[in-house]
């Protein structure tokens, strides 16, 4: 696939997800922050893995999930992320390419193993994530290829990847290349704890470099340090040419761009099984919509349709063709 063929290129953590059912007692026993993503070290990862119930292993990573969703919708995408040349690295490499996403980042030959995220899903569908970043921290500016960024209509960045210093520099390089080429930059805030760690830098990014912002209610409230959602929305309006897509769980989503506001109702789901990847797949639908001629409200609708599919089963990758699903719900894709 030629670089000029990409609708979206995503830069993020290349992770293998390990999902298991859990309960509140387990979270309390291991002092896990329910509903959040917490970074852990290798010994903690080993201890929690040993204590988990029987698990499902599948390739994941927030932006990687989004790119798989875009491919399922019929979009053209690429992913940049670092794995190790080990068994889980091979699993990730196979899975993302099988999903239809271009992936050409060279694996690390040594150092930390491929990242894994231990996901504990409670009966209410909430997911509590414990992430060992492993090889993800090895992502470097040299892994960002100029021709790929120049050729993609949107470069999508994962807030989770802001922790490692060299990955941060890779982000800055991608932003500079994208804007120099007249392309758009999108950012996911990823997690309120991630925002807490990097608020000042994220605020600067959002004000200066981000054209399309993705956040849920907790993340945008953390960014602007307010408990009032409407106050956060008013802050977002101050930059007239920025689009903000804000997810609100069962309330659906709100799309804000200058004076425009579009409320998008959530799709009905028979049963919420696992909320892992809901925001990732909303982003997939929204970015697909933007790059395929849809207006903001229509792109938001595609986003909530994709999010509804993903929360109806375990795992953060779609189990049906999202292209066919959107067509059946909207009459087009």
Any overview of this molecule?
The chain is an alpha/beta fold and 333 residues long. It has one domain: UDP-N-acetylmuramoyl-L-alanine:D-glutamate ligase (3-Layer(aba) Sandwich), CATH 3.40.1190. It has twelve helices and 14 strands. It has a nine-stranded mixed beta sheet, with helices on both faces. The chain has a five-stranded mixed beta sheet with strand order 3-8-7-2-4. Helix 10 runs antiparallel to helix 11. It is globular, with a radius of gyration of 18 Å. The two termini are 22 Å apart. The relative contact order is 0.15. The mean pLDDT is 93.
What's this, in brief?
The longest helix has 17 residues, at 192-208.
- As for the CATH topology, it is UDP-N-acetylmuramoyl-L-alanine:D-glutamate ligase
Number of structural domains:
1
Radius of gyration: 18 Å
Q: Based on CA inertia axes, which overall geometry fits?
A: globular
Order of helices and strands: EEHEHEHEHEEEHEHEHEHHEEEHHH
H/I helix tally:
12
SS-based structural class?
alpha/beta
Which architecture does the CATH hierarchy give at level 2?
A: 3-Layer(aba) Sandwich
């Amino acid at each position: 696939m030629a670089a000029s063929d990409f609708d979206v290129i995503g830069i993020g953590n290349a992770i293998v997800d390990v999902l298991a059912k859990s309960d509140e007692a387990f979270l309390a026993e291991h002092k896990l922050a329910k509903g959040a993503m917490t970074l852990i070290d290798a010994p903690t990862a080993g201890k929690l893995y040993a204590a988990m119930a029987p698990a499902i292993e599948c390739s994941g990573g927030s932006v990687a999930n989004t790119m798989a969703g875009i491919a399922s919708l019929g979009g053209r995408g690429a992913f940049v992320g670092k794995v190790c040349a080990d068994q889980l690295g091979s699993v990730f490499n196979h899975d993302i390419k099988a999903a239809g996403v271009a992936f050409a980042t060279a694996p690390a030959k040594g150092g930390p193993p491929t990242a894994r995220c231990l996901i504990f899903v409670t009966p209410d569908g909430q997911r509590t994530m414990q992430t060992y970043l492993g090889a993800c921290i090895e992502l470097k500016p040299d892994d960002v290829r100029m021709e790929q960024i120049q050729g993609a209509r949107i470069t999508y960045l994962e807030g989770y990847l802001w922790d490692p210093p060299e990955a941060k520099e890779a982000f800055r390089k991608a932003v500079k290349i994208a804007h120099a080429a007249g392309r758009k930059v999108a950012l996911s805030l990823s997690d309120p704890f991630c925002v807490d760690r990097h608020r000042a830098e994220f605020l600067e990014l959002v004000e200066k470099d981000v054209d399309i912002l993705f956040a849920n209610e907790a993340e945008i409230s953390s960014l602007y340090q307010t408990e009032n959602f409407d106050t956060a929305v008013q802050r977002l309006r101050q930059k007239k040419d920025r689009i903000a897509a804000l997810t609100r769980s069962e309330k659906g989503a709100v799309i804000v761009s200058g004076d425009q506001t579009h409320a998008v109702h959530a799709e009905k789901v028979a049963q919420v099984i696992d909320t892992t990847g809901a925001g990732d797949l909303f982003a997939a639908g929204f970015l697909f919509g933007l790059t395929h001629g849809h207006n903001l409200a229509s792109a938001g609708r595609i986003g909530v349709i994709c999010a509804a599919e993903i929360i109806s089963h375990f795992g953060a990758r779609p189990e049906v063709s999202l292209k066919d699903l959107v067509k059946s719900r909207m009459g087009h894709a």
